[in-house]
Amino acid sequence: MSSDTDTVERIRGWLTGRLPDDWFEGSVEVTVDREEITVVGRIPAPNTEDVSDVERDAALAGRVSAFRESTRERRIEIARELEHRSGRKVAWGIDCGDRRDLFTRLAAPVMTRLRQPERQVLDTLVDAGVARSRSEALAWCVKLVAKNADTWLADLREALTHVEEVRATGPTTAA
């Protein structure tokens, strides 16, 4: 079994060979989970010296939109190849200036069982208008935890990498 790092490196390497050289500044950022590969590249920001924040935000949005439209057919072609190779869906994103836009992202259903106290939390969020449904409320909770627990989650992911390394060096069982 290959580690997640090997998978990311293999995908990033394939993309380096497959993507047009003039699309992105530097190498792409690749994030992989069970269902999806997210590819994020950096494009040059427009010159926005001596402009208001509103004009700068509009210029960045325009640059991202132009890139997205002009590369759509090639991105779809590359995504299909990668989906065939990996068995995962492919999402794209752009970094431009201090802005990050992700598009064509997968929303995977997740089934969970919750006891009454947890359901009451979700129902409170729905009743307060924070979310339209329990499903949306649960997604909101996950985003909030991810935002507020970044360091802890990074430490946990690093620990999982070490577990994977130890497993890889352990004894193997005969088939």
Q: How does the SSE layout of this entry go?
A:
Elements: H1 4-18, E1 25-32, E2 36-43, H2 53-86, E3 89-96, E4 99-103, H3 116-127, H4 134-148, H5 150-169
Helix pairs in contact: 3-4
Features:
single chain; alpha+beta; four-stranded mixed beta sheet; 175 residues
Structural overview:
By secondary structure, the protein is α+β, with helices and mostly antiparallel strands. It has two domains: 1-108, 2-Layer Sandwich (Alpha-Beta Plaits); 110-175, no CATH class. The protein contains five helices and four strands; from the N terminus they run H-E-E-H-E-E-H-H-H. It has helices at 4-18, 53-86, 116-127, 134-148, 150-169, and strands spanning 25-32, 36-43, 89-96, 99-103. Strand 3 (89-96) and strand 4 form a beta hairpin. The longest helix has 34 residues, at 53-86. The radius of gyration is 20 Å and the shape is globular. The relative contact order is 0.11.
Helix content, binned percent: 40-55%
Radius of gyration: 20 Å
| CATH class identity of the largest domain | Alpha Beta
Structural class: alpha+beta
CATH topology of the largest domain: Alpha-Beta Plaits
Task: Output the number of helix runs.
Answer: 5
In spatial order, strands of the major sheet run 1-2-3-4
Average pLDDT over all residues: 90
Instruction: Report the span from N to C terminus.
Output: 14 Å
How much of the polypeptide forms β-strand, as a percent range?
15-25%
The total number of structural domains is 2
Uncertain residue segments: none
The number of distinct β-strands equals 4
Principal-axes shape call: globular
Describe the main β-sheet briefly.
4 strands, mixed
Task: Give the topology string: H per helix, E per strand.
Answer: HEEHEEHHH
- The CATH level-2 architecture of the largest domain is identified as 2-Layer Sandwich
